[in-house]
Amino acid sequence: MKFNYKKDISPKYLLIALSVICIALTILSALFPDMLKPVKAYTGKFVTPLQQGVNDIGNWTEKKVMVFGDVKELREENKELKEEVNTLQNEVGKNEAELAELQNLRDLYELDELYPDYKKTVARVFSVNSSGWFNEFYIDKGLNDGIYEGCNVLCDDGLLGIIVESYDDYAKVRAIIDDRANVTGEIGSSGYLCTVEGSLQTMDNGYLLATDIDKNAIINEGDKVITSNVSDRYLYGITIGYVTSIEQDSNNLTQTAHITPTVNFTDIKDVMVILDRKQEVNY
Q1: Nearest 5 degrees, angle CA 223-CA 194-CA 250?
Q2: What is the crossing angle of helices 33-114 and 11-31, to 10°?
Q3: Where are the alpha helices (DSSP H) in the chain?
């Protein structure tokens, strides 16, 4: 019959036996210390390294737990910092947009001051064609705001174009750079007449052509070009641009000048519409 100590030995008796052994060893250690020295030395060789190992494992585990805690804390701090950075970036973006809007308002105010004799209103561009130029586009005001066909449109420091279609709450603008546009202008202090021709092709090179200038007209680089009083569609005295070069035509009767417009036709957000009109015409 196989002996099963788990069933045959009662835990109570096992505890009593171990207690007796411990008491006996304690008495022997007290009465015969020299006899147990070899035992202590022998067990020390195994117990001490084992104890040291256990201590090392405990220390390593404690350090890892501390590192894990630090990493967890750092991750939480990193998450909070990222949220703060995102919040700050959103605030910066909002502030930049507000500053840009404020600058636009300042520019429009300065533009309004340049032409104090005309009644004007501000409108925003909401649609543009896909040519890459703002040669034709739509603004968010129309008949309900007093904007009709023939109203001149300003931007930056001068003439942008003219209203060619107007509806209740929006209108269509044709810029002076459009191929169908032409403006009767005056050059320099002497007011030499010219025709500023719209052309997307020449605008790709940064200029418009001012043609039909009298051959005897004295034109210099930097001369201002403004709308002429003889124009049937454009009000007088609005800046169109500045002369960058001048050359005699092959017919020896006229000159042609290159004009750099005062308006940036690649980026237009807000415009100013002059409500006064030269006359009502069909376009």
Answers
A1: 100
A2: 110
A3: 5-8, 11-31, 33-114, 200-203
